[in-house]
Design a protein that fits this description.
Layout: H1 3-23, H2 31-42, H3 53-64, H4 91-119, H5 126-134, H6 136-144, H7 148-163, H8 167-181, H9 185-193, H10 197-214, H11 221-235, H12 247-255, H13 270-294, H14 299-312, H15 326-331, H16 336-347, H17 368-385
Helix pairs in contact: 1-4, 1-5, 1-6, 2-3, 4-7, 7-8, 7-14, 8-10, 9-13, 9-14, 12-13, 13-14, 14-17, 16-17
Length: 394
């Protein structure tokens, strides 16, 4: 890799390290959800009450000695395993360790992705490095201690192993992502379409093992409560807030009036608010499967499409979730003008978009991260479609 790229990566890593040091002493929402859930698991108290937002919020305040409020919904019980190794140290120490792990994860992931891009014959520029590492989504994770830099590390490891045809290890890291955060379902489905059976089997096995392994240490009724609370979470009026950069959030904001979250929508189309996003994502998934089956090679674009589908399927995607888009940004070939457009959508400060354009049709300007995700998915599909089709059978 060129020296200028390594210098740029080092400079960005220094900036992130300084920001991590500055953020480590704070108590914020985000990390306390992982810490609180892990603490409940470590002390044998994790059960359905964790899905009671009021109860869990009070518990978090008790164990952190702060007035910060957080919720465990809509996470699976296995999410508690993410911070379990640091559950019994002080909140401040645990947060510092968590942020250091997050920083190491995204910095290492960026290096791996840049090497994969370089080996694929695509140009690697300092601007790409800066967009990957200094995007607002990365800072959001480090500021509040969300877990998506760690998940990005899992996704990147899966990408590296899949491209190397080491499907067993790819399945392990993808299974961890699926099991801990239900992240990566889109990629899992595309691996089925590509008949990467070893990766599929190992991923399913690892995710299933995590679910089985945690069950004796929690109240088993939590598994029955989980899907009910997810459904309830998706139906909450707060899903219309523009901070949630999701397809469902966009259509709800445009179609359903709410005095707090969408006081002046341009339409009254509640049925379409749920039906249209579901239809769009289903079409994108089916199209991705069809193209993945039709074409050969180009694992990078399959992975990129899977990451985008995993992101698009989220009913509530906040800023921190979009750190995962560093993966398709690095792996998908695109012209310079498209790179500039995608980068602008990933870098645009949400305080000038999501927090500004909240009424009428102007709300269409509030969703830059969502548009970046759909655009990257489309570019992934284009990259796949340009590959030779599989030969016809006898």
């Amino acid at each position: 890799m060129e020296r200028r790229i390594l210098v740029t990566w080092s400079a960005a890593a220094i900036v992130l390290t300084a920001f991590t040091w500055y953020s480590a002493g704070s108590v914020t929402h985000g990390f306390v959800a992982y810490y609180g859930a892990a603490r409940l698991l470590a002390t044998g108290q994790l059960g359905p009450m964790a899905y009671d937002d009021s109860w869990f919020g009070h518990y978090v305040q008790t164990v952190t000695g702060s007035n910060v409020v957080e919720i465990f919904t809509p996470n699976p019980p296995t999410m508690a395993l993410m911070a379990w190794p640091i559950a019994m140290v002080s909140p401040a120490t645990a947060r510092t360790a968590w942020l250091c792990a997050s920083l190491a994860s995204i910095a290492t992931a960026a290096l791996v992705l840049l090497r994969l891009r370089s080996r694929d014959g695509q140009p690697v520029s300092p601007v790409l490095v800066l967009v990957m590492l200094l995007a607002p989504a990365v800072f959001a994770n480090l500021r509040i201690g969300q877990g998506y830099l760690i998940i990005a590390g899992f996704f990147t490891a899966a990408a590296m192993f899949l491209i190397r045809k080491d499907d067993g290890l790819a399945g392990v890291v993808l299974g961890l992502s699926l099991g801990l955060k239900l992240a990566g379902l889109g990629l899992f489905i595309l691996l089925i379409a590509r008949r990467r059976w070893r990766a599929v089997a190992v991923a399913a096995g690892v995710a299933g093992f995590l679910a089985i392994a945690i069950t004796p240490w929690i109240e088993p009724m939590m598994w029955f409560e989980f899907p009910l609370r997810v459904r309830e979470f998706v139906a909450r009026p707060s899903g219309s807030v523009t901070a949630y950069q999701s397809t469902l959030g966009l259509f709800r904001h445009l179609c359903i009036a709410d005095p707090t979250w969408s006081p002046a929508p341009p339409g009254d189309c509640a049925a379409a608010a749920f039906a249209v996003p579901t239809l769009l994502i289903a079409i994108a998934l089916l199209a991705s499967v069809a193209v993945a089956i039709r074409t050969r090679g180009n694992d990078a674009c399959v992975i990129a499409a899977g990451v985008c589908l995993s992101e698009l399927s989220l009913p509530a995607a906040a800023e921190s979730h979009f750190a995962l888009l560093a993966i398709p940004l690095a792996l998908v070939p695109m012209e310079t003008w498209l790179f500039v457009l995608v980068s602008a959508l990933l870098l645009a400060p949400l305080e000038y978009t999501a927090e500004t354009f909240t009424t009428g049709w102007m709300a269409l300007l509030a969703y830059p991260r969502l548009y970046a995700t759909w655009l990257l998915w489309g570019l992934s599909m284009r990259g796949l479609w340009r590959n030779p089709p599989l030969p016809a059978g006898p």
